[in-house]
Amino acid sequence: MDKKNTIIGVLLIVAAFYFMYDSAKKDAAVARAARQAAPARVEAPAGGAKSAVETHFQMAESSAKKSTKEEFCVIKNENLSVNFTNMGGSIANVEILKYADNQDSDKPFSFNSVRGAVPAMSLAMFDSYGELPCPFLKPFSLALKSGDTVSYEYVEPGLMRITRTYALISSGKNDFTKYTLVVKTKIDNISGKPLKLGEIYICLGAVPPTASDVYGSNLSFLMYNGGSHFARSSSFIDSSGFLGIGSSQARPFEKISVQDSIWGAVKNQFFAAVFTPEGAVSNAGFAIPLKTGYKTDDKYMKNSIAGFMGFNAGVIEAGKSWELAGTYYVGPKELDALASLGAGQEEVMNYGWFGFVSRPLSRLLVWINSWVGVVSPAWSWGWSIIILTLIVRLLLWPLTSVQIKSAQRMAKMQEPIKAIREKYKDDPKRVQQETMKIYSEYGINPLAGCLPILIQIPIFIGLYYMLQTSCEIRFAHFLWIKDLSLPDTLESVPSVFGIPLHILPLLNAFVTFVQMHLSPTPSTDKTQAMMFKLMPVILLVFFYTFPSGLVLYWLVQSLLGILQALIVRMGMDKVVLKKRTKPSFMQRMQMAMEQAQAVQEGRGEDFKKLPLKERLRIAAEDARKAREKLKSDRLKGTLYEKRKKNPGGRSTPKKR
Description:
This protein folds into three domains: 3-17 and 369-413 and 443-570, no CATH class; 38-42 and 49-350, Beta-galactosidase, Chain A, domain 5 (Distorted Sandwich), CATH 2.70.98.90; 585-635, no CATH class. The strands form three sheets. It has a nine-stranded antiparallel sheet, with no helix packed on it. A six-stranded antiparallel sheet has the order 6-5-11-18-17-14. Strands 1-2-3-4 form a four-stranded antiparallel sheet, with no helix packed on it. β1 (72-76) and β2 (80-85) form a beta hairpin. α10 (503-518) runs parallel beside α12 (548-569) and α13 packs across α15. The longest helix is centred in the middle third of the chain and has 33 residues, at 380-412. It contains 15 helices and 19 strands. It is elongated and about 100 Å long. By secondary structure, it is of the alpha+beta class.
């Protein structure tokens, strides 16, 4: 590999990491403590302080439950078990049957089972008590339970009747049926006069944080109107910013005001609930933090998040009704399942700028796993990542070969370049000019090896986002790795200064060290030599708390890079440098620059006394004349040579 271009690539990767800083890994010790503490929940002391949001919601919920007993009703299929409550005629929780709650339990993951959550799909309206919509949790009566359908009804005598119907779709050929309910709410005006409802909100449910989601970047509520508008959980914690820049205080809630939103979602790293209304749009929504009660010092594990999506019910005339129907998806963040909903719901994956890379990589990885899972079901996702790496590397093989061969040619030029540096050591500008001149003479482009690195950067970042948010690799085992979505911590080995042992980043640093020493050296610069030595350390720091699936990808591609370097290295002695017989474009540009510079130097001190604007004009004119002369010299003796016209006669000499 071209070491100079490797440095450029690493610097570009560092810049890319800055743009995705809110998705990078936090300190390893904090992450480990969060993972260990996540299952342990504690209730707030009875007399402890509560946030205004919790007090507002708990007052509404407790006042409704005092007057009647809460009753439950369950419907299920092969994917979901939906637990309904008569409080609000809504959903208490949803069990996603094929996904475990944690690695040590067969109990399925339960959506909306977080501390302080109000039932999902419950209605909410504004009252005089605060800035947030108040959940409507009055007791409904069970009107119908038949197969996969449940219907609740609430009657306010002389005012209104609310009917809420849910139908759980059995799985079929279409992916969208796997985790989807059809929801319908109807409000009838039975008062005999206009009924003013105004804005009615639907609770989308609440999700907890995950230990592997650093900075809470995936824990969010979003509304979509052709573009995604996020309210992230990081808004609900204090932030000191970057070196004090961008510091902020925690907000009690976050309001999203966007016009014509066609769906909304609440999600964490691996699961999502998406409500898509039929024939209606939303113009506002609320994201609300709920205290988890986790015993941890990690501030990003302290809040779950709930989302409310608002719809304008307006005024219902006497004898009329208002309806809101739609589909409610509750399930894993699987790209194809979300895309099959048909209205851009795949944006829930939040792949960022490099979604055009993440989406095909995700589909390719799932397809590979469908075959590998037959042979090795226990380690299928690890093998699938390795095979994906092989495919990507094979596609890039021709480009990386060009990169290595370019480095070999540059390595052959080190002796002449070293002589130039010794000769013009007091004139850096002249060193640069002579170096570019010798490169041009031999047809060497120093930037020729950058293209493969530039291509690998979006692939790397796209894979990072894909592995960060795909539910498929959650709890996936491989070799000693217990979860490919987390660092490969060896729990049996004691930590050093609170930092646990991660094997893959250490192996990757060693492989990088070997790769650097097998690659041809294009430069004798001491600064670059120092960068070569620090490269394994830099990558170790970056990768140490990254998901093990991502580090596995980088490790395998580095091993393949070593193999490719060895193959190309065998042909190192066959590399022959030849001078160009005709001047290249770079040579012609260099000659034009030298001629323009010579003209400038020949103007003497009077030229230097001219105003800057005038000097720039004269320099531009000199450059134009130099380009025209080069063009004229190049066309001399050809059919396109510019000939002087003979005034008053023929423009060309007579034929003999």
